[in-house]
Structure formats: structure tokens, C-alpha cells
Predict the structure.
Amino acid sequence: MERSNDIGISGLAVYTPPFKVSLERWSEWTGNTWSKVSAVVGDSFRQPGPHESIYTMAANAVLRLIDQYDIDPREVGYFALGTESSTDNAAGAVIVRGMIDRALDARGQPRLARACEVPEIKHACLGGIYAVKGAVRYLATDGRGKKAIVVCGDIAEYERGSSGEQTQGAGTVAILLEENPKLCRVDLAHSGSSSDFRGVDFRKPVARHFAIDYAPNTDRYADFPVFNGKYSTFCYLDAVTHATRTMFERLGSDPKKYYENVAAIFMHRPFHWMPVNGMTSMYVWALAESEEGRRELAALADQAKVSYAAVLSEINESRDLFDGVLQRGIDAEPYPNAAAVVKVARNAPALKAILRDKMRLGSDKMRELGNLYTAALPAWLAAGFEHALEEGVDLTGQTVLAVGYGSGDAAEAIPLQVSKHWKEAAAKIQFQRALDGAIELTREQYEQRHDGVDVKIPYQPSGEFVIQRVGHRVTGDFQDIGVEYYAYVPSQSELASAAAE
């Protein structure tokens, strides 16, 4: 029986830009090996149009959420934006709120509650999950009886020719949270956290915009990150293993058995292979927590030809990865013996079963999106619940695990208990519908759009928010330089419905 103080997720809605870049075509353009790109990264990524920003995309997802779940805007007391793609350093979620309010006005619907909190939360790819935790805490305290909306989204872009180019993407996911959730309960009481400073992992220092050699071939504002790919992988693996270990301590359960019994696992997903790699490390670290697991760990160490004692010692340490960079260099493996075990563990039957059975829901759909940063984990949850519904997988009453990550470096491991009403809520997600109808860009269209060259792409916005114009005035009595003005472009069906009324 669900308790009245259960708090969690009741709905998910997705927005992706209309323009798609096929990674198979991209591999041909750039001379990359398609089979490798497909295995490691995915099938395609989305690119925003010239009429879009993170704010318009976020507003699109939120309006879809309101429509798909018939939300009374007056009941929303917490409206948060999790992103690292903001283009305004003063405002954030309130910008999205403004668009939503005006669209609701035009429809004759009430606005979002005036007594509504509007925080924007930034921590790389983890900002959205931190916003979700904030929403749960709000609903459990001064927001009892209210609803919360969290929208997560980003524009992940990398310079052409860089090692990150194939891992671009864009999109947003809006999340409805409330008491007695229809989709799943968020179990913060047993969640696990991890954080540590990683220095030169993945950063976006403002100073880079003033450097002469920053994005010299891109004639537009570019949000290309400063990153070190191999080191970023070390950071990801270290963070998720520590967060899940903290979760297991709070649960008081055997991690190996937990992984065997959990219904599904969803993780932060910058590209297809990363969560597979992450789950492999989480599994190896979990083996150290039980007698049976340690026997398997010893056998794996023997296969890897490393000392079992050295592996166990590394697993039980919490190393300062940035200090390791300063002392040994950027590519120095922080856990060399445990890493050797991770490599051979990929062939362990128990791990293969986990990867096959626990991480398949929604995985193929996610291959089409590319990297969504803060929206990557929420999008996989949306895809997974819809996939389970399509296949007739009954998740009722079961536990699924959500593992979020943000470079910088932090991670969250949160158990989710699936509601008895999850099928009704999952039927309204419309994830596949959000993917349909994409326009595949040619090489010229992609490159020109990416580099800021004006390119004509036949597309007419419909049923979405757009940047109408950008202010440019700086006078003695009025300033709006750089301020975006937005408009909602109704769809043909919306226009027809309004005319009929």
C-alpha cells in the first residue's frame, strides 16, 4: 500500500530538436570507422536550430508535460531548471516560466502559481538530478500538497575535428513530481552521494571565450568545453562506484545480490559505451562486499594476472584523482590493478546477464539522441519506462536504480520504487513521438550550422517556442542588449481548435 508521504515521479515528457545528424554519414564525412562509432557512441545526435536555445527547448518539454499529464499549473509550487547550457548568468528557470505563462495565457488557461520557486541548478550533467532531489525535499516539507516540475536539458557541442565531436546532442526532459507518485517513488533515504574536485576534468571556464585560439573556426557563440577524455572516464568510473557504495551502506544490502535482483538500471549516458563501462566497474567494486563476491574477485584478479591483495586495497581506497594528475600526468590510471580486473570482468557471466537483462530497456532508443548532459539520465528513464510498457514488462512494485553523474565531479545513486499506476503514467510519456519526424542534415548543412554560417534548412516551427528576436539597445533610459524575446508558434491543429471555439 502506498503511503501518503511517498514522493516521486508521476510523469515525463521529452523534447528533441528537429535536426538530426546520422553518425554513419558523419563517419563517412570525417573518415572515422562506422562500426567502432556505432558500438561506442550510438546512431545519431540532434542539433538545435537557429530559432532555439536551451530555454525554448526547456519550455517545449514543460508544455508537453502539462498537456500530456493534464497538470493544473496553479498547483505547481517548485519549478526548477537543471542545465549547464544557460546563456544568461542572472536568470534561468524564470525565463522558461515566462514562456509557459504566456502560452497558457493564449490558451485561456491559468498561469503557474505566483507563489512558485524558480531555481536554476548547475553542476555539469548532474544539475537535473540535484534539482529532482530538491523537488522531493520541497514536497516533503513546505510544499506538501503541491506539485513540482523539474526540467533538465542541455546543448552538448564540441569543436569539429575534436575527439568529442561525435558525442554531441541536444534535448530536454520535463519531470512531474508529487506525493503518491504515479510512476515511481524516489527513495532519497537510501540514496548515495559522491563528490570530489577533479581539476581539469570537464570544465567551461569563462576565460576561454577571451582566448585567441578558442574556437577560431566557429563564427558564433560557442560553448565548447575544456576536457580531457581519458581522465574524464576515470572520474566517471570513480564517482559512480563511490556513490553506489554509499547507497549500499545505507540499504544494508549485498551489492552483488542487489544487482541480480533489481529490475532495471539506468545511468548517466554521455554515449552508449560509458554506462556499460560504469556498470562493469560498479560490479567489480561490489564483489569486495561479500565472501562469495571476494572469491569471484580473487579469481578475476588471477585471470588479470594482478595481485588480489592490491586490487582489494585499491577498491577500499578513496584516491584524489586530481592529485594523481599533478603527480603522474593526465593519463595515469588511478586504480591500475582494479582496472585490469575490470577488463577481464566484462566476460564474467553474471555481469553479462546484468548488462543484457538490467540495462536493455530504452537503450536502443537512446542511441538516436546523442549526449544530452543533464537530460541524459532522465531521457533514458523515459525511454525505459515506455519500452517496458511496449514489451509488456511488468515493473509494478519493483526497484529500478538511477545513477547520475556530473563532471566536476559528483554522482548520485538513487533507488526508485515503481508505482502500481506506472503503466498509465508511462503511456503518456510519448518518447518515440518526440523522436519521430526528424530532418536528417547533409554534411554542408551540419557543418555550416555548427560553425555559425547562415544556412537555409527547410523547416517551419510548429507547436513550439522560438526566439523571436534578440535585444540590442543600450540607451540612457532602456537596455535590452542580448536579451532574448520569445514567442509560441501554435500548430495547425491548435489554430484549427482555436478557430472552432
About this structure: The first helix runs from residue 23 to 30. The chain has a mean pLDDT of 95. The two ends are 44 Å apart (CA to CA). The CA atoms of residues 269 and 275 lie 6 Å apart.
